[in-house]
Amino acid sequence: MTDIPAPMQRSADAERFRAEGALAGLLSRGGLALAILAVLVYGWIASPMFLTADNLLNVLMSMAIIGIVVVGMTFVLVVGGLADLSVPATIACGAILSLALQPVIGPVPAFGAAIALAGVCGLVSGILVGYVGINPIIATLGVGTIVLGIVQSAVGGVIVYGANPETAVLLKSRVLGIPFIVLVFLAVALLGHFLLARSWWGRWTFATGGNLSAAEASAVPVRAVRAGAFVITGLCSGLSGALLGLTLQSARPLVGTGYEFSAITAVVVGGVSIMGGAGSVPRAIAGLVFVQLLTNIMVLQGVRTPVQGLVLGLLIAGAVALDMALRRRGGA
Predict the structure, then answer these.
(1) Taking Cα atoms as reference points, which of 87, 108, 144, 111 lies closest to residue 260?
(2) Which of 15, 84, 177, 306 has the fewest CB atoms lying closer than 10 Å?
(3) What is the distance between the alpha carbons of residues 328 and 83, in angstroms, rounded to a whole number?
(4) Helices marked H in the chain
């Protein structure tokens, strides 16, 4: 038998790994599309309410609010930050301040101030993670707890009501048949996709999440990039909270509870690696579509909340297990 030269063997192995990686990516994308199609078909069969215009509009509105957070959370996972658990607090910050500051400085300045202060919360988390080196879960959980405590103290733990109902009318209005709030979400998604996939900041984000040491050796400002991911998530969460508060014309300190879990579920199911270095905004949004449709079907069928949580938890576990298996297969 003729031995294959070592360089040729290594080249063949590398080519095989690239082909397997491309095939895995194709199957993953195709699998998610098929899963969304299957959910649509099942929902159509299981509930006559599922494909009605009112129900789909409610799903779309809910998807827009969570989707803005999903865009921000995608940056955190890609950069290798695991997750941002301060999301409920920054959403509450955006929702409450956008309403509470209206009588003082007006609706538009209040809206901007709410988002900016939520971004400051993200900046604090980013500094703790990127520059101090604290574990992201611990840092964001601590920041979120402190911020939520401050918000609760500021409003006395009561519900805050809006003083300008015209803002709710604007957000619920439609442009060419599309709800205004959905257009805001699409704009954020497009901006996030461009930033992550078409900019030098996005290249730095992937480099930092893929191999921190190699990124540092390539003069990538990894500390600033890691911190920046949490700032982006803070701004997105603040925007989501402000839109939520203005739409409902009311907000309470716990208004953002559960949004972090919904966002993480969507991002991970969409194929964004929890270990960093892989993923995209469109795939995260595809994961969001699947999760929101599945949740809506469970609600229409009267599935109890604990069971819904179990199903979503199994989705996360399965997505993470698949990600780890693909990484081991690719030698990552």
Answers:
(1) 87
(2) 177
(3) 22
(4) 6-46, 53-78, 87-100, 102-105, 107-126, 136-155, 166-172, 180-197, 200-210, 212-217, 222-248, 259-269, 281-300, 305-329
Bridge partner residues of 179 (DSSP): 174
**Mean pLDDT estimate for the chain:** 84
Is CATH 1.10.3470 the classification given to domain 32-329?
A: yes
The DSSP-derived string for 97-127 is: HHHHTHHHH-HHHHHHHHHHHHHHHHHHHHI
**Neighbouring C-beta atoms of residue 194, cutoff 10 Å:** 12
Rounded Cα gap, residues 29 and 230, in angstroms: 27
Which tens digits make up the pLDDT trace of 128-153? 999 998 999 999 999 999 988 888 88
Query: Tokens 């194709």 belong to which residue?
Result: 26
Residue 178 zone, left/alpha/beta (φ > 0; ψ -120 to 50; rest): beta
- Condensed to tens digits (0 to 9), the pLDDT of residues 253-291 reads 888 888 888 898 889 888 888 888 888 999 999 989 988
- The C-alpha atoms of residue 324 and residue 175 are separated, in whole angstroms, by 43
DSSP character at residue 130: I
Residue 115 CA from chain centroid, whole number = 16
Please answer whether residues 78 and 205 qualify as being in contact, where contact means their C-beta atoms are separated by less than 8 angstroms.
Answer: yes
User: What angle (nearest 5°) sits at the alpha carbon of residue 120, between those of residues 117 and 125?
Assistant: 140
Alpha-carbon radius of gyration of the chain: 21
Alpha-carbon span 232 to 332, nearest angstrom: 27
**Rounded distance between C-alpha atoms, residue 154 and residue 192, angstroms:** 32
Q: Residue 303 has what DSSP assignment?
A: -
Written as six digits, the tokens of 149 are 């405590």
Which pair of structure tokens corresponds to residue 181? 């709030």
CA angle 105, 118, 317 (to 5 degrees): 150
Q: Considering only 15-29, 37-51, 225-239, 299-313, which range has the smallest mean pLDDT?
A: 15-29
